[in-house]
Structures are given as structure tokens and as C-alpha cells.
Specification:
Shape of chain A: globular
Radius of gyration of chain A: 22 Å
Number of helices of chain A: 11
Oligomer: homodimer
Largest sheet of chain A: 8 strands, mixed
Largest interface: A-B, 38 and 38 residues
Number of strands of chain A: 19
Strand order of the largest sheet of chain A: 6-5-4-3-2-1-18-19
Distance between the termini of chain A: 21 Å
CATH topology of the largest domain in chain A: Metallo-beta-lactamase, Chain A
Strand content of chain A: 25-35%
CATH superfamily of the largest domain in chain A: Ribonuclease Z/Hydroxyacylglutathione hydrolase-like
Number of domains of chain A: 2
Order of helices and strands of chain A: EEEHEHHEHEEEEEHHEEHEEHEHHEHEEE
Chain lengths: 323, 323
């Protein structure tokens, strides 16, 4: 499972960080999925291998502008590029109103259907052939969701000993069994895929959370997950000074939660624009990493725009590019 | 009069060109004016000296998304930065609907008033202490305007001979007269500013046009103007192939018009994304310059993102930066 950060700044863009967007795919870049779509997301995509032509679905965590204002431009550009494939938009109902109002008041047309799915519906669940997606309600100034992406299909492995013991020779039958199909032989024997194969590992599962001041809401989902991507807008000291109103998390809060949930991988993102990345500048973004590391012993990253990661089949997390 | 291109691409952004936006000021960067606001305009501004805190007014030529989709982000970011000054938005009425719908459906608030002014009103006229702004109706798929910016105040020059002849010694009186104020002397004489000063030149005037397939609509405005900024979406050959529907201009069309109107300076912008700037790439953007030069003998530029220009007091046009 691959993903690339398209924006890692909270609220407003900075010179080096755009507002929130995450491109995610099961393998390669076709199809792919977008989580949140701040202004300039279509611009960021031009510098990646992801194309709006192969975008399968957009998941919006909540209605704030730094997570949604890129939608009108991305959707109309896809139409100008010739897209005709339907597109699922999983979002709170206001996002549908916003898109309709913008299209209506800008003389825009979309030459493909939008399929709106209410992310706030009690029975929300989405899937395609690659991924199952469920959601968890978070705590923010407006209704907000974390999306839990679980791979739908884990390749079976043949149990060679059993096949040999039963005299089943290598050939097309092995391929069928590996694909999960039962096979009826000419001699009348029915070979059950479940008997001759095993599923060698759990499906990979990752949580992409929206804005949230209560990481513990992810306790249940976190138990079976291999990765959490969560906002860490401030350090604990700044969070204390800012007060509870913005309803964001500190690096410490998220780190403590990830540690208690036993999550092996944690990527922090959505940083206040006060934090700087240039060497010697202050407050430096590495403060947030230092704070998180005091409370979390797993594999930790601070996201940067255009950082690409892979959640491997052994559940380790690898950064694919290096700045 | 200074201006910086924030975007020079038609329809969609490219890797090196954003969609339309132009920052303009009378002197320095405080206050300044924005003409059109495509998606990502606030991002582009972060790389210039213009700040949303000193933005006086936004002029929108027409409602298409590549000229308007940056408004919600720019306006809400200005609020987050602490802006409290009112902001004029000169635009077709749909832009007001768009902004209200987006704010309402994204839990946004603006901590300063927006002052909407209908750009399509028959008696449209705007001014502040620096600039007079009128408009000209263009021809495009939707109602579209060119804005004509005229400097409001040209510094008077003292007529030293007359002052000496009348025995008026250098001092504060000279300053008053230079500022256009009449002065009553202790001896009872009334000195008329108009008598002791002259206005040494015409006010500078520049036209910033929106999308338009009929440059000749600018014939009257062009007569007294020193600069035209106009779209040249295609070469004539591509325009012929694309057909009339998009209602854009070719480089040739605009060049012929500017030549016939006697305009001394012409900057072309809003180029189709098919044109490339990298050396050796094709079709190269310089095709458009070559085409325009065949029909226009004045000073010609093709705009690039972040190019800054100055219309000097002698009506010459200077590019301030060089890539």
C-alpha cells in the first residue's frame, strides 16, 4: 500500500507545505484514492505519478476549507482532460452543496458523473476490488472522520506438501487453487482451495485520520491496524497555550495514544504553519518529532510534501524517496 | 505602476504556470489590487512581496473557475492571518453566490467585511486615492470585462520662473502649491496652485483584459492607454482548428489590434497548456511571440509566472526581474 503526501500544513499553505491531501493506492498508481483535497491539490498532483484520470474515489474527512477547497478545480480539470469515468466522493453532505454551488456559479460542466456518498451515515462502508474502507468518528469543531483502509485481497500460498501427498501435479490447477477457486478434477475429485492453500498474513490496514482532539477514539480501530496517519498540529506546550477551542492534537497526545494502542508505525502531519523546516529556523518542526519520540517507541515519521511511503506486506513502513 | 503575474495558464495549471491572477499596485506594494483569482493564487502570493493584509480590492473579469476558484482560500487565509480591513470584490453577481455558498458549507468565517460591487452594472466605476478603474465589456462565453486602470494623481511640477518673478521664496508655500493647494499669504495675496504648477504628463493608463474573442472591443479604451495585457490562448493556426466555441483570441488577432490601436506596450498571457517553455519542447511558447511580432511593432512580452513589470512615468514598460 503506497501513499504520497500532497500537503502537510494546517489551515493555510506555507512556501514549502500545501494544505491537506493524501494520494493512496493499493499497488502502483492505478486506480488510486485521494483523502482530503485542500486548495492546490491538483497542482501538487502534477509533480507526482498520480493522474486524475485514474482517481477512483475521494474521501473527505470534514468540511473545513483546508481539506475541501481544492475540489472544484480538481474536478473541473479532470473533465477538461477528458475524464468520463464516474467518481465517488465520500464526504459530509455540505461538500455536495459546495460543489454544486461552485459549478453552478462558474459556468462549469463535468463530463462524468459524481457519486456522492455520505461519510456521516451510520452504516458507512465502501469498497472496490482492492480496498475495504470503514470510518471512525473523531472529535473536532465539525463532524470529522478517520478512514480505515484495509486491503481486500491477500494472495494465497499453495501448501505444496498437501498437493504432493494427494498427487496433484503442478499445472493450471495449482493456479486456480491459488486464486481461491475450488477445482473439480476429471476423476471426480473436488479440490477445495481452502484446503490446499493458506492466507499467509493479515491484510494490511492503515488509518488516515482527519482533524481530531481525542486520539483515543481510534483505540478499537488501532488494535488491528499497522499504521496511523494523524494530525499533530502543535507541540504540547503550544497546544496548552492555544487552549482547547481549535480541537486539534499535540504531538505528545498522538504519540501516547499510538504507543498505548501498540501501533507499529506512526506518521504525523497537518502542522501549524508556525513550524519551520529550514536549518536553524525556530520553532523547528523537529521539536514535534522530539516530543513524539519521548512517548512512542514505534517507527515514527513527520510527513513532508511529496514524501512517498510504502506499507510493506510485513507491515513495516518504508519511505520511498529521500529529500 | 507595478504588476506581477501570478498565473499565465488558460483553464488548468501546468507544472510551471498557474491559472490566472495578476497583482497590481500604483507604487510599492501597499495597497495593491488583484485581477482574477484562480486556484492557488494565495500560494503564488507567498513567493512575492504582496500580502493579503494590504490587498485593497479584487477585480474579477468573469466567472470561469480558472479566474475565481482561488477566492475562498485567499479570503479565509486573510481572515486567519488577522485581517480586519474591509475588502472590495468587483465581480459578476454569481461570484458573491459562490463565495457565500462555500463559506456556508465549510464552517468558515471572515473577520472582515466583503463589499461586493457588480462589475456588470451599466454605470460601473471604482476608485481609491491612487487609481480610477473603469471597465469595457468583452466577448466571451459568459459576460466578461476588461478593467482600465488609470492613475488618479500625477505629481505637479513647480513653475520656478513664475514663482521667482512674483517674489515667492522657497519654503512651505512651495510644498502646498506642489500638492495642488491654493495658499493665502499674510500680505493678502491668494496664490493659485494651477498658476504656479503644471501637470507634466498624462496619467498612466493600462488595460487588463479578461477572456475575449474580439480585441476590437477595446478600440476606444486602447486609444488613451499605454499598455494592454490580453489573453492569447492559441496561435492563429490552432485557433482555426479549435473553432470559435471557446471564444478566445489568437496571438495574431491581439497583435493586429494592438498595432491598429497604436498601443505602445503589449503583454500576452493566458496560454493554452499545450505550449511549453522548456528549450527544445514543442509546440514552444515562443511560437506565439513570433506570430505576434509579425503584426505588432510595439514593445511585446509573453508573460511568465512571477514576472514583474513597471509601467514607467514615461509610458515605457520595464521587466523588473529576469529569470
Amino acid at each position: 500500500m503506497d501513499f504520497t503526501f500532497l500537503g502537510t500544513s494546517a489551515g493555510s499553505p506555507t512556501r514549502s507545505r500545501n494544505v491537506t491531501g493524501l494520494a493512496l493506492s493499493h499497488a502502483g498508481t492505478k486506480p488510486w484514492y485521494l483523502v482530503d483535497c485542500g486548495e492546490g491539490t491538483q497542482h501538487q498532483l502534477l509533480h507526482t505519478r498520480y493522474s486524475v484520470m485514474q482517481l477512483r474515489a475521494i474521501f473527505i474527512t470534514h468540511i473545513h476549507g483546508d481539506h475541501t477547497f481544492g475540489l472544484p478545480g480538481l474536478l473541473t480539470s479532470a473533465s477538461m482532460l477528458g475524464r468520463t469515468e464516474p467518481l465517488d466522493i465520500i464526504a459530509p453532505p455540505q461538500v455536495q452543496h459546495l460543489i454544486h454551488a461552485v459549478i453552478e456559479n462558474s459556468d462549469s460542466t463535468l463530463n462524468y458523473p459524481l457519486n456522492f456518498i455520505d461519510s456521516e451515515a451510520a452504516d458507512f462502508h465502501w469498497h472496490d476490488e482492492h480496498l475495504d474502507v470503514s470510518s471512525v468518528a473523531l472529535s473536532h469543531r465539525v463532524p470529522c472522520r478517520a478512514y480505515v483502509f484495509t486491503e481486500r485481497w491477500v494472495e494465497r500460498q499453495l501448501l505444496h506438501n498437501r498437493l504432493q501427498d494427494d498427487g496433484i501435479a503442478p499445472g493450471p490447477v495449482w493456479g486456480e487453487l491459488k486464486n481461491g477457486c475450488d477445482v473439480l478434477l476429471d476423476d471426480g475429485r473436488l479440490l477445495k482451495s481452502d484446503h490446499y492453500t493458506e492466507i499467509p498474513r493479515q491484510p494490511r490496514r492503515m488509518i488516515v485520520a482527519g482533524d481530531n482532539d481525542t486520539p483515543a477514539l481510534l483505540a478499537t480501530a488501532g488494535k488491528d491496524s499497522h499504521l496511523l496517519i494523524h494530525e499533530a498540529t502543535y507541540s504540547q506546550e503550544v497546544a496548552d497555550r492555544v487552549g482547547p477551542w481549535p480541537q486539534h492534537s499535540s504531538a505528545e497526545q498522538v504519540a501516547r495514544f499510538a504507543e498505548s494502542a501498540g501501533l507499529p508505525n506512526l506518521v504525523l502531519t497537518h502542522f501549524s504553519s508556525r513550524y519551520r523546516s529550514e536549518p536553524g529556523s525556530t520553532p523547528h518542526i523537529n521539536l514535534l518529532a522530539a516530543e513524539a519520540m519521548q512517548h512512542y517507541k514505534g517507527r515514527l515519521f513527520l510527513a513532508r510534501d511529496f514524501d512517498a511511503y510504502r506499507l510493506e506486506k510485513d507491515f513495516s513502513l518504508t519511505r520511498l524517496n529521500d529529500h
